Amino acid sequence: MRAGERLKNLRNRLGISTRDVEDLSRKIAQDEGNDDFQISNGWLTQIENTDSVPSIHKLFSLSIIYRTTFHELLSLFGVDLTRILRYQFSMPLERTHLAKLEVADESQPVTFPVRFDRGFHIERSSLLSRMVEVWGEVPVPIIQSLDLRHNLYGYIGLRDFMLYPLLRPGSFVQIDGGQNEIQPGPWRTELDRPIYFIELRETYACSWCELNNGKLTLVPHPLSPCTTQQYAWPEDAEIVGRVTGVAMRLVNHSEDYSHGAARLPKRS
Question: How high is the pLDDT of residue 266?
Answer without folding.
Answer: 44
